[in-house]
Specification:
Elements: H1 3-19, E1 34-45, E2 48-53, E3 56-57, E4 61-65, E5 68-78, E6 83-89, E7 92-100, E8 107-114, E9 117-123, E10 130-147, E11 157-160, E12 163-177, E13 180-190, E14 192-198, E15 202-207, E16 210-221, H2 223-227
Antiparallel strand pairs: 1-5, 1-16, 2-3, 2-15, 4-7, 5-6, 6-9, 7-8, 8-10, 9-10, 10-12, 11-14, 12-13, 13-16, 14-15
Length: 239
């Protein structure tokens, strides 16, 4: 099964789990203070790297991080109909290939990532079912279970520094009724990291700068309808 099919099935399963959760009847609310989205997400790093051996830059050497399609989830809290904060997260595995003068090395590393992003958003109102929004915030990428790829560099292991960067976002929710939404979203993050092939003296300074494209479904409701009236104090007045 290809990556798109795998990611799509996983996101649909996640959406089905949300839909099948123990939500009260008619809990959906277009002015609710909480939204959950299940998404199919494309992570497309815009990679540029400088590769060094023994402290000397290798002329023409570069690296490319693979594009991946994965399931993802967002949690959004609305302070008002216009202002919200969103937490985006997922897991992904990426391959890193040598390019330029080191293209013959092929895959030189692989890694799993945990890349949560937190954005503050402004949601535009007064457009009927169409609800566009923009956002800005930060993203943190934790790298783990790094591998040596085809290990043509002869490394004992690979280490990748965790990264932190600035994120911009634009998106669109379309109301399907009863608190359900279709969603399209794009994020751009600027961040860099250092990759080290341990035991070889080779390392790379890499700008990852990923584009993150998402599509999926969301469900908006009031937390007080799920957890009782203790969460009602922060709910948005009905219009």
């Amino acid at each position: 099964m290809n990556k798109f099919a795998t990611g799509t099935l996983a996101a649909l399963a996640l959406a089905a789990g949300i839909a099948g959760a123990s939500l009260p009847a008619a809990a959906g609310d277009d002015h609710g203070n909480f939204m959950v989205r299940a998404l199919v997400t494309g992570v497309n790093p815009d990679t540029d790297a400088s590769v060094f051996a023994g402290g000397t830059r290798i002329p023409g050497a570069n690296a490319d991080v693979s594009d991946e399609i994965i399931p993802a989830l967002t949690l959004s809290y609305f302070f008002t109909d216009n202002w919200a904060v969103e937490l985006f997260c997922c897991f992904a595995k990426h391959d890193i290939d040598g390019t330029g003068s080191i293209a013959g090395l092929g895959e030189i590393a692989d890694t799993w990532i945990f890349p949560p992003a937190l954005t503050a958003q402004y949601h535009f109102t007064g457009m009927g079912a169409w609800k566009p929004y923009v956002g800005a915030g930060v993203q943190y990428i934790a790298f783990f279970d790094e591998g040596t790829g085809q290990n043509r560099l002869g490394a004992s292991s690979v280490s990748i520094d965790d990264a932190f960067g600035f994120t911009l976002q634009a998106g669109l929710d379309y109301s399907l009724g009863n608190g359900w939404y279709a969603n399209l979203d794009v994020k751009k993050t600027w961040l860099d990291t250092e990759i080290s092939w341990n035991g070889t003296g080779v390392h790379a300074d890499a700008d990852l700068d990923p584009w993150i494209f998402s599509a999926g479904v969301g469900y908006r409701f009031n937390l007080s309808d799920i957890f009782g009236h203790g969460a009602k104090t922060a709910s948005i007045p009905m219009k």
